[in-house]
Amino acid sequence: MFPTLALVSLSFLAIAYGQQVGTLTAETHPKLSVSQCSSGGSCTTVQRSVVLDSNWRWLHDVGGSTNCYTGNTWDDSLCPDPTTCAANCALDGADYSGTYGITTSGNALSLKFVTQGPYSKNIGSRVYLLSEDDSTYEILNLKNQEFTFDVDMSTLPCGLNGALYFVEMDKDGGSGRFPTNKAGSKYGTGYCDTQCPHDIKFINGEANVLDWAGSSNDPNAGSGHYGTCCNEMDIWEANSMGAAVTPHVCTVTSQTRCEGTDCGDGDDRYDGICDKDGCDFNSWRMGDQTFLGPGKTVDTSSKFTVVTQFITADNTTTGDLSEIRRLYVQNGKVIANSKTQIAGMDAFDSITDDFCNAQKTTFGDTNTFEQMGGLATMGDAFEKGMVLVMSIWDDHEAKMLWLDSDYPTDADPSAPGVSRGPCATTSGEPTDVESQSASATVIFSNIKTGPIGSTFAS
After folding, report:
1. 3-state secondary structure string, the chain?
2. Is 68 a member of any domain?
3. Which intervals of the chain are annotated as region Disordered (predicted)?
4. Can you name the residues that pair with 250 across neighbouring β-strands?
């Protein structure tokens, strides 16, 4: 993910504490109801909340209001090195609706793409589900379970991504392993994913200031020496024109700071500790161009329900993950997932290791998913526990063409796996999307977890 909001910073203490908490804005987490279901379909509503990722937050000097980070540049006097910066600077509370366009109502979370706040323009957001105590992340194990939610992404055009996914973050945001992180999960720290992002401003309780360079095409983002890696299950990456469900795996078993080859950057993409490509099921890419989109079988012009089932080999919560199944429900009708329609491939309609191997072979893609353990590794991450993430973002690196257009753009669109959606290869320019679709909003609602078959009416 590529967050695009500048942070502001706090003043400094002589004592080297680290990654402080500011006091200029009260941190009040928006409440969100979710449901926990049991066999037979009986569901109980429980009160939870969401927290904004630390990367979007105002970062200022401790005891003051001087920015530690402005645009895509750190203040050298406050942040001359990673540990001094963590001691000098504090993350502050968030005005969720006014600054970030994040609102909740009952069981519904709305994420607005562009929000003109009182001091700045915010672009995109990322939030995490908190547990009952409102200060640690909710940790879920979905082995032999299903996860269900409703989504309305009817206003999301080409180039946007309304994403719902799980990552293997620490429950406390890393504050236990890294005592210099005083903010913790209450302030949205500790993010990681399989792209091993370098744009995260604090990793392992230290500022990512070493070798920091502002982005050449994003005035609010940059990248540092370190990345932050972990297993990732993309349940839903989508806009109104396309969608993908994608497990990604790593050779590490918790949030891990990377540098050099381990991060898998550039030409080292397939030499890092994480599988950046993943094993995706995108109906359009798998040959069915009639399945999902405006007016199609799954009609993205209105709300629908997404059901994802995580099947284990022995149908227990401790067995090896062996299959990821997808169903949809819209207008009272259960819709089976599309089937692959690719020459040389069987008619798969779910993600299995056999599907992944066949897809990689047919598309000529490097199969790091298999090399890193495939679905069993994904299941191991769930058994440890993963954190629910919901976000809206645009793509300054690849314009989201990997989701909704032809990608790579220099490949033959008729070659298997290249066409991923109907959007033009000229679409998704962030400057265009941000100016023309500022009001775009994704709404996630009615989140349910429970045993297979318990969260929806068949």
Report:
1. CCCCCCCCCECCCCCCCCCEECCCCCCCCCEEEEEEEECCCEEEEEEEEEEECHHHCCEEECCCCCECEECCEECCCCCCCHHHHHHHCEECCCCHHHHHCEEEECCEEEEECEEECCCCEEECEEEEEECCCCCCECEECCCCEEEEEEEECCCCCCCEEEEEEEECCCCCCCCCCCCCCCCHHHHCCCCCECCCCCCCCEECCEECCCCCEECCCCCCCEECCCEEECCEEEEEEEECCEEEEEEECECCCCCEEECHHHHCCHHHCCCCCECCCCCCECCCCCCCCCCEECCCCEECCCCEEEEEEEEECCCCCCCCEEEEEEEEEECCEEEECCCCCCCCCCCCCCECHHHHHHHHHHHCCCCHHHHCCHHHHHHHHHHHCEEEEEEEEECCCCCCHHHHCECCCCCCCCCCCCECCCCCCCCCCHHHHHHHCCCCEEEEEEEEEEECCCCCCC
2. no
3. 412-437
4. 274
Residue 129 near residue 418, CB atoms below 8 Å:
no
Q: In total, how many domains does the chain have?
A: 1
Is residue 2 assigned to a domain? no
Q: 8 in a domain, yes or no?
A: no
**Is 348 inside a domain boundary?**
yes
Tokens 């318990």, located at residue: 454
* Nearest-angstrom CA–CA distance, 158 and 93: 32
Catalytic sites, residue numbers: 232, 237
pLDDT digits (tens, 9 = 90+) for 278-321: 999 999 999 999 999 999 999 999 999 999 999 999 999 999 99
Entry pTM:
0.94
- Per-residue pLDDT for 6 more than 80? no
Q: What pLDDT is recorded for position 118?
A: 82
pLDDT in tens, 364-414: 999 999 999 999 999 999 999 999 999 999 999 999 999 999 999 999 999
- Its domain, for residue 40, covers 29-53+96-451
Which amino acid makes up residue 338? Answer: S
Q: Residue 42 belongs to a domain with what CATH number?
A: 2.70.100.10
